[in-house]
Amino acid sequence: MATEKVQVVVVGGGATGTGILRDLAMRGISALLVEQGDLAHGTSSRFHGLLHSGGRYAVKDQEAAKECLEENMILRRIASDCVEPTGGLFAALPEDDPAYAEKWVKACAESGIKTEELNIKELLKKYPVLSPRITKAYSTPDAAVDGFRLLWSNVNSARRYGAKMVTYHKLSAVYRANGAITGVELTNTLNGEITSVECQMVINAAGAWAGEVAAMAGLEIHMIKDKGTLLAFNHRLTNQVVNRLRPPGDADIFVPHGTITLLGTTSIAVEDPNSTKPSEIEVENMLNIGRETMPNIDNYRIIRAFAGVRPLYQANKGAGGRAVTRNFALIDHEQKDGLKGLVSIVGGKFTTYRLMAEKTVDLAAKKLGNNTPCRTAEEPLTQPVTSEMLERGKKVFGVPGYKKAAERLGDAYGKVVEKAEQDPSMRRMFCECELVSASEIDYVAKDGDSKTLSDIRRKTRMGMGTCQGIFCSYRTLGALGNNPQFTVGHREFITEFLQNRWRGIRPVLWGQQLRETQLSTGIFCSLFGMERMNDE
Amino acid sequence: MMNKKTDVLVIGAGLSGMMAAARAAQSGKKVTLLTKGMGTLSLTSGCIDLWGYEVDNPKQPCGSPFAQIQKVVEQNPSHPYAKVYDVLKESLTFFQGICDKDGLTYRDNGGENWLLPTAVGTLRPTYLAPTSMAVKDLNKVKQIVVAGFDELKDFYPEVLVTNLKKSKLLRPDCELTVAHLKSGWKKLYATSLAHRLEQPEGQREVIRQLKPLIKPGAIVLFPPALGERRDIDVAGLISKGLGCPVYEVTNLPPALPGQRLQDLFLKYLKNQGVTVILSSTVTGAQVAGNRCSHVTAEGAGKTFTISAQTYILATGSFVGGGFDSKPGQIEETIFGLPINTGDGKWASGEFLSLKGHPFNRFGIDVNDRLQPVDGQSKVILENVLVTGANLAGSEFSIEKCGNGVALASGFKAGKLAGEVSR
Ligand SMILES: Cc1cc2nc3c(=O)[nH]c(=O)nc-3n(C[C@H](O)[C@H](O)[C@H](O)COP(=O)(O)OP(=O)(O)OC[C@H]3O[C@@H](n4cnc5c(N)ncnc54)[C@H](O)[C@@H]3O)c2cc1C
Ligand SMILES: Cc1cc2nc3c(=O)[nH]c(=O)nc-3n(C[C@H](O)[C@H](O)[C@H](O)COP(=O)(O)OP(=O)(O)OC[C@H]3O[C@@H](n4cnc5c(N)ncnc54)[C@H](O)[C@@H]3O)c2cc1C
């Protein structure tokens, strides 16, 4: 049993945890982040990807709105390659209360959110998918954010400052002596191996699982776990985020991401933070509401449905769902429960992760006697890829693959390009939807954090596109021929790959989607007989 | 609007439609085959599956598929095989006859199924295979050389070898060898490789690179791209050059064996005087009482009607384009025939499992004359016959019976259409 020693163990590889890791590292505090799955295993990859302007909260909660706006502006600056500054619009339909619109304009102004009334005729010309029934529309500074990338950028930056991060390690016990934390036990979720880490402090950033983590220290945190479902359309329906101008409700936001659009979401209380199964009823209800804003929504193909669980903090039991504050809570368990060295950060939003991290690390640093100020709002997360490197990438990967790869790889782009320059066979594209090259797969396979074939899939985004993953799943196996750790378990990989996709496809199984699914059964079962294949 | 007249109108150029057209033409009928696209044959292995596994032990590959099909017919009268069991053997003979005449022989394995290797290293049970795929006595082979091309995207010899190695069918001392051939081309696709291998230089190059690897008792497995043309026996020529048997394995589309079969049939039909209308879609039907009087079709920018004595609906389920769906609703696109959706559940929770998926079983209920019937077994349209993947009640992907059902039902529909008097 290996024993490691750090000052702080951070639990949870979501936006909050990775933000905290970076902040700790930048202040010179030694830290290890542990995540039970792959990075972004939790809610931070199962969300809408909206970098809120604050508009959605302006009427009800100006404090939250201001926080969103401020963080939105900071992230545009420090993480420009993770944010697409699409801008947003809020549109009202005849059935929406006009008094709300008035209140909203006023509240936005008070919160500092710039809005501008739009000419409806021009708007409809620009976006014919929008309902001609729209009565009023305003622009806002909303944006789209790539959660997965932002998390990796945080981790990469933290590592440059000496921090450590392990995936597939679950916090399984907390050691305490004399009313203080002394260390933690970790279980490797791939092979069951147990290790322990000595530390002075544990920061619980486990999102919807925060209650479970607190329970390991014998304490209680009451979380409301609120499932939300999203639909991915195979189309960029508008270039801006579209919100409904009425009190926040289900299925009233469309967010464009690259070539797709996400419509969401719902709000259903669940017991288990792992409940991420979208239901057919949710899909139906969302389409009914979405149709009000975009009447011809049924003409666009839905490529998948997926769900995440909001970690809502309930200080006083009772109120549920959307009414609970989106503001976060920082819990000092030394004060609250008399346990020294445990801090929990719960609730909040993706948009405000950095601020949550700053407040958490302010408290942690004070306890550790460190008074270095926070610098995460000033220092960029990544160095943008140089135009010289982009040109070289274009030569080996062609247009438009070179750009997508640069967006995914960030700092690592140079290495991937170099490899392809040296070895022409590394230039082949293995996933045609997402334009992933052999070189990129090879790089990711060797990066040390990729433990399973599915990790490679997530990092490269292979099979996340509009095809059924038929070709790219098989090609991934082929491409890894010279990475021996991945040459076993082909059945398991393909089964898991397809099952993951299937979870998203099944609730939207009609039209083109059903046709292609029948084709997939033909390929994987008729041609390859994978339903009966053995791995042993 | 132009109106065409014919005795038998076959809608769809998949295996079932082409079999129907071939059999109806043999009865001396005037046959028209109209199709939107080329059907699923070119997506398949090119082999004819009849039934793959034991009914009572679905993990165990069966020997004779006929024994299993007999059980299916007894236990499950709504399975498509129950409607066409009477013509099953006759239809296979008819099919083999057509292929033989063209020189593309389809072999059976002495009444038993073949177990043929795939690109992922599994062994798939099938009943009829073209000579280029029919690997004989795999259990006696001493060396299997898997030949891949570095420039070819969708064939990975290592994947095949990794998994085939685990097969208990192979001799324990069977040696598996990966051969990375170089074509010297920048990129290779199945068809460009096939064209290259039709050329003597292409064959020589492959033989030169492979020869040093071949040991006594070896066979060589290739991706399914050994030529597109049927008049050049690429597998045979390479085999001669190497002095050992050479085969194509099953792989993802595009694969040439199914394509060859499709080409063969279209040529045969034209030779038999069948009028083949490509790239045209039947968009609707005129029905009077329980008969169809004509259908409307669109193609090459024109709309026209066709009237016939018999209409054969060979439009191929969802993949073929015969069925369409919306949330909670499935329709047959030409006649609006009812689709049997069982207990209303569309799909299984597990994507890959022995249960398969209900949507693959969805289809049109028919009587044993292949006429569509309603829930009370009443014939809906007496001069419309339904074939292939459109038939309700079979899970082609799990049962391994897709082309078998298509072949037998197409044959029967063609035969019945041939018996209708003018
Ligand atoms: C449907 C939906 C849409 C949303 N849309 C938006 C939006 O558009 N904009 C926005 O700003 N916010 C949005 N949110 C909210 C936002 O996604 C979340 O607030 C945020 O992602 C939470 O991040 P986190 O790091 O706190 O939690 P998570 O991302 O869930 O991270 C917690 C991590 O802890 C890990 N973990 C748990 N227990 C253990 C353990 N014992 N050991 C090791 N690791 C453990 C988990 O695996 C998980 O990865 C949305 C939420 C939902 C559900
Ligand atoms: C990927 C895959 C692999 C398979 N592999 C095998 C295998 O290896 N062995 C095996 O035995 N089975 C296999 N099967 C199953 C088998 O291919 C099918 O069950 C069988 O071929 C169906 O034939 P069909 O003639 O009924 O339909 P299809 O081949 O689908 O033909 C339908 C035809 O109808 C046409 N059409 C549709 N609508 C219209 C319209 N409105 N107007 C005009 N034309 C129209 C289409 O263009 C097409 O030509 C596989 C299936 C798939 C999907």
TrEMBL record, chain A:
Gene3D superfamilies given in the database record: BFD-like [2Fe-2S]-binding domain, FAD/NAD(P)-binding domain
Cofactor: FAD
Class of this enzyme: oxidoreductase
E.C. number(s) listed in UniProt: 1.1.5.3
Domain FAD dependent oxidoreductase per the UniProt entry, residue ranges: 8-331
PROSITE patterns: FAD_G3PDH_2
GO MF entry, a single one: glycerol-3-phosphate dehydrogenase (quinone) activity
InterPro entries: BFD-like_2Fe2S-bd_dom_sf, FAD-dep_OxRdtase, FAD/NAD-bd_sf, G3P_DH_FAD-dep, G3P_DH_GlpA_su
Key words, A-Z: FAD, Flavoprotein, Oxidoreductase
Protein family according to the UniProt entry: Belongs to the FAD-dependent glycerol-3-phosphate dehydrogenase family.
PANTHER family xref list: GLYCEROL-3-PHOSPHATE DEHYDROGENASE (PTHR11985), GLYCEROL-3-PHOSPHATE DEHYDROGENASE, MITOCHONDRIAL (PTHR11985:SF15)
The protein's name: Anaerobic glycerol-3-phosphate dehydrogenase subunit A
Organism: Heliobacterium chlorum
Gene giving rise to this polypeptide: glpA
